[in-house]
Amino acid sequence: MTDVLLEMRGITKRFPGVIALQDVSLEVRHGEIHAICGENGAGKSTLMKVLSGVYPSGSYDGEIRFDGRPVHFAGIRDSESAGIGIIHQELALVPYLSVAENIFLGNERRGRNGLIDWNRTNADAAQLLAEVGLDENVVTPVIQLGVGKQQLVEIAKALSKDVRLLILDEPTAALNDVDSAHLLDLLRRLRDRGITCIMISHKLSEITAIADSTTVIRDGRTVETLDMGSAESTQERIIWGMVGRDLESFYPERDSAPGPEVLRIEDWTVWHPVQPRKVVDGAGLTVRAGEVVGIAGLMGAGRTELAMSLFGRSYGRNISGRLFMHGKQIRARTVAEAIGNGIAYATEDRKHYGLNLIADVRTNVSAAALGKLARAGWVNGHEEIKVAEASRRDMNIKTRTVLDTVGTLSGGNQQKVVLSKWLFTDPDVLILDEPTRGIDVGAKYEIYTIINRLVAQGKAVVVISSELPELLGTCDRIYTLSAGRITGELPVGEATQEDLMALMTTDKEDNA
Amino acid sequence: MRNLRQSGIYIAFVAIVALFAVLTDGVLLSPGNLTNIVLQYSYILVLAIGMVILIIAGHIDLSVGSIVALTGAVSAVLVIQNGQPWAVGALAAVAVGVAVGAWHGFWVAYVGMPAFIVTLAGMLLFRGLTLQVLDNVSLSPFPPEYQKVASGFLNGLIGGQGYDAFTLLIAALAVGGYAVGVFRTRLARIRYEQPVESFPLFVARVLLVAAVVMYFAWQLAHARGLPIVLIILAVLVIAYGLVTKDTVFGRQVYAIGGNLSAAMLSGVKVRKVNFWIFVNMGFLAGVAGVIYSSRSNGAQPGAGNMFELDAIAAAFIGGAAVAGGVGTVVGAMVGGLIMAVMSNGMQLLGVEQSTQSVIKGLVLLLAVAFDIYNKRRAGATR
């Protein structure tokens, strides 16, 4: 069991302006479960895309050896035929096709006449389902299955291609505890049958329970590979590897002087829009004037869902709980009501949810508070341009005129347009979801400066971020969120990345 | 980029007018023919106003031809069969149009169905209702007052020697109003310290517009005077041009079409806006129904067939984007006029109906291809 199945050596992958992976190495032995850990954006998914041929050979530097031979995959088909199967976090099943059709999609069981042999398709599918322990009829459309069962169908699909190395990207992120346990059992059984697994996961308890070895990646580099058989390889040890770096000093200084409470929520619970599970579970938090409050949580912890459900119920269903502004309970059932109550939410995905990319800067800046520029429904276009010009100056938006199309601006400048739009609504509390995602270091500094200016004016700011250093550098207080629950609240002076990571990876059981 | 696309339409329009003016030895621009073009295509232009607003918001309406037929039929039954006054017929037609629009708006906005399906169903539904209302027969003729809506002229009111002075007066007032309007905008821009074009250029632009309008009015004045439909059309174009450009509601239509999710998260009441733009389409289809029934002097079961396609073509040729978020009322009018001038010009030249159809199809195809080509180029520079 010591021979090496997969060896990746010196992998470097560059994107325009960013080095996503730098000299990463990974060694996976035959028949082991190998976990890959790292913060969001550390490069885990990129590494798996290099391995599976999503980024074809030649678009990266370094060497991949599979089963002792160097391989050069030009696409997913190549890696699949070599015996590498990848299951992405977002499942790639066709919802209205049956389980059997999905399993053999692109790999159809055909008879002599060239038509699909349905008997063989369904019989083979049934056998594969038995292997993964899924008791479902193979002609059921997959849309009728829960996420956990869909996950199993994906695995059956990979097995149908005689997979030897199975890669799972956050397989349990969307699963409840029972389904997760079932999936982990299945992975153990597959291992016993000689199928090697690479599992990307944020859930450290899972990793310590199931993995044979763990490779930690940080900032696009391999930190270390731990043998999980050794007693030293604890969760704390992995956390230390994931965050072990100094807080970079590019956060502008700010005097903190929190005032009275602005926003408070109590017992806030949100259900997934279609699946029968809670995405936010009994959350409570307060934000005061002149204070920056951080929300830390891993992907799938419910950060964005919490924020959007507060913001006029833009996400989820069966939302319950109490929402207070300035100590008075309010209702914000629509976005317009939320804005009217002084809440603003700047999305993490500005291209899809934040901006009208084909419109100009002026229209985007005024979009959320056009009524302020109108009398009896008629917009004062001159006043509108004046407002946009003022934002351009204050925010230092680099554009020729405010009539330029927003889609042509850089990410940092687009983000400043988003901020301008929300500031023009004159909010009391501004929720910023990943405010510096995808923008360069200089623009990040400017965004932090803007945040500081806002709290100096007495506004309350909530920052949601995957980057712990960013939270520690900008916030006064940080809440941690794990699986929809608030698992901790730390003043920034007492918080370390290790503490936060431990709270963020707390499971429900530990919390109960 | 956007400027080039917009002015591209105007350049194409001028080129097409010039081409057919030469090919027809000037007949195209003769007083009688210009009047004809206005009368013949007015209802398509009215439909195109409502259509371009729907297209900007990312919808479509395939049923407007059937609504034109139904509203005309209702009016004909009331006026011709039951002897009601002409105004009752016209108002009832518009009311039926509004009701149909509300029906579509309900299914699209509140049930969340794609407009394509809802209005495809409406196309069948309201065509069938038209047949039932008319009992499968054509009704005609309308009394003379009703006919005046589409074929009446305001002329001779203040006399004139061989021409109609009233037409020229109205045109002069319109030009004057336009000049004052743009001048006030210019002053406001200067007050708000925004860039303005140089004064000579500004004057040249106003003079050019004035010259074109006055030439057009001069020609009309030498034919039959000022068509009533032209007044209706002008009022609608100006009103809707301003509403789409300068009101909160109009801006929200663009926001919805440009990025639906972003519009929702900016507090736009998307369902309400979607509902009302369908009601508006129904209203305009009712107006078009009155004009069309008046022009054809009766109601036929097959009236308005394929009008939706002309209206949609006008919007797209006029620069509306297939994906929504882009388009203007004025652009759609120019798009509609391009189609009108081409049809009229080819008719004058005696081009066969089949060939006309082929050419119009190609123009629509190329106009949208040009739009997509432009977008791709704009995307590449990002």
Automatic annotation (TrEMBL), chain A:
Coiled coil: none annotated. One of its GO terms (molecular function) is ATP binding. Keywords: ATP-binding, Cell membrane, Membrane, Nucleotide-binding, Repeat, Sugar transport, Translocase, Transport. InterPro entries: AAA+_ATPase, ABC_carbohydrate_import_ATPase, ABC_transporter-like_ATP-bd, ABC_transporter-like_CS, L-arabinose_ABC_transporter, P-loop_NTPase. Its main location: membrane. One of its GO terms (cellular component) is plasma membrane. It is found in: Cell membrane. Residues 6-244, 263-508 form the ABC transporter domain. Gene3D superfamilies: P-loop containing nucleotide triphosphate hydrolases. Pfam families: ABC_tran (PF00005). It is a peripheral membrane protein. The keyword Transport applies. It comes from the Bacteria. PANTHER family: CARBOHYDRATE TRANSPORT ATP-BINDING PROTEIN MG119-RELATED, XYLOSE IMPORT ATP-BINDING PROTEIN XYLG. This is ATP-binding cassette domain-containing protein. The lineage of its organism: Bacteria, Bacillati, Actinomycetota, Actinomycetes, Propionibacteriales.
From TrEMBL, chain B:
GO terms for molecular function: transmembrane transporter activity. The keyword Protein transport does not apply. It is a multi-pass membrane protein. It is found in: Cell membrane. InterPro entries: ABC_transp_permease. Pfam families: BPD_transp_2. Keywords: Cell inner membrane, Cell membrane, Membrane, Sugar transport, Transmembrane, Transmembrane helix, Transport. The chain crosses the membrane at residues 7-29, 41-57, 62-80, 86-108, 115-134, 165-187, 199-218, 224-243, 273-292, 312-338. The keyword NAD does not apply. GO terms for cellular component: plasma membrane. Part of the binding-protein-dependent transport system for D-xylose. Probably responsible for the translocation of the substrate across the membrane. This is Xylose transport system permease protein XylH. It comes from Kribbella antibiotica. The lineage of its organism: Bacteria, Bacillati, Actinomycetota, Actinomycetes, Propionibacteriales.
